[in-house]
Amino acid sequence: MKITSIHLYAIHLPLDQPFTVSYNTYHEMPSIIIKIETDQGISGFGEAVPDEFVTGETFESTYQLLKQTLAPIVMGQNPAAFEKIHDIMNHSVYGMPAAKAAIDIACFDATGKKLGQPVYQLIGGRFHDQFPITHVLSIAESEQMAEEALSMIKEGYNSFKMKVGTEVDKDVERIKAVRNRVGPKVAIRVDVNQGWKNSATALTAIRHLKDLNIDWIEQPVIADDIDSMVEIKAKTDIPLMIDEGLKGSKEMREIIQKRAADKVNIKLMKCGGILPAIKLAHQAEMAGIECQVGSMVESSVGSAAGFHVAFSQKIITSVELTGPLKFSQDVGNLKYDVPFIRLPEQPGLGVDIDEQTLQRVTKFQDVIT
Length: 369
Hints:
Layout: E1 3-21, E2 24-38, E3 43-48, H1 59-74, H2 82-92, H3 97-115, E4 131-132, E5 135-137, H4 142-154, E6 159-163, H5 168-182, E7 187-191, H6 199-207, E8 216-218, H7 226-235, E9 240-242, H8 249-258, E10 263-266, H9 268-271, H10 274-287, E11 290-293, H11 300-312, E12 316-319, H12 323-326, E13 340-341, H13 355-361, E14 362-368
Parallel strand pairs: 5-6, 6-7, 7-8, 8-9, 9-10, 10-11, 11-12
Antiparallel strand pairs: 1-2, 1-14, 2-3, 4-13
Keywords: Isomerase, Magnesium, Metal-binding
Cofactor: Mg(2+)
EC number: 5.1.1.-
């Protein structure tokens, strides 16, 4: 089986409501869908959701990199040669993980279809039966976040990820408001997205949270400041998770050596796809560090890829892949059974692509042959 052509679709997925994190507000999510075709008539879909604040890639640069470099250099390769394809990409371009993730995911999808197996069977087999889904609360006023949390409990959710990271006083007020509204037993995770910037500010905030039964605090400081994570971890008993600070194996080695986190957030868009994510999970497992598979708010394509990774690895104990639940239109049909996700058994990613919707949300496209 050889890759004979690659279709690129630059799309904008409309969100049901604006999504605000510490560094930006999104009204729609820019994404790049790719479709690889093979000489055996088998196709595979992948996705890139770049973020200049996280992966260092823009929407436009990622599209052009795929069009001009990555798609041409993998032409004629066997999509099942995952390691070789990554080696070819890595020798041609340094970094650019979201672009590489699109190729990687499409190759796994095509290979799973060729073999008649779900992707998780290609990377270790299924370990988990299901995962609870966490509802993500976008940054808003305290009362609004609390009301949204209460309404989501009525829909079946029992855990929340709170986006914060603006002003410490307001962030503490938001967290307290949600805890007071949902009661003491509902799980709350706090994601700062680097917004508290340094250890002094982060510790000031954390002092006000010690009695609120927080599951963990995610990336309170600037991504590259691993030493501040070490300091915070030494001064609080609230578990710490690294997200933006973990991109690949180099950062994972430093996190392990310095014992800088209790948990790590693996995202396919940060590390380069399914194969690199599995390698990170294995590194973490050897060090006894639990993992989560997180989201860059991907469509059903990228979200399904993340779920296949999560379902196949024992050390992955939580997921936050809720992009498809936020879109008013999606290119795929990944199904959620709130408050759980149960992966389909179909070959490949198990996602059917709605070609009409794909064309409707496409801004521009190309074919590389």
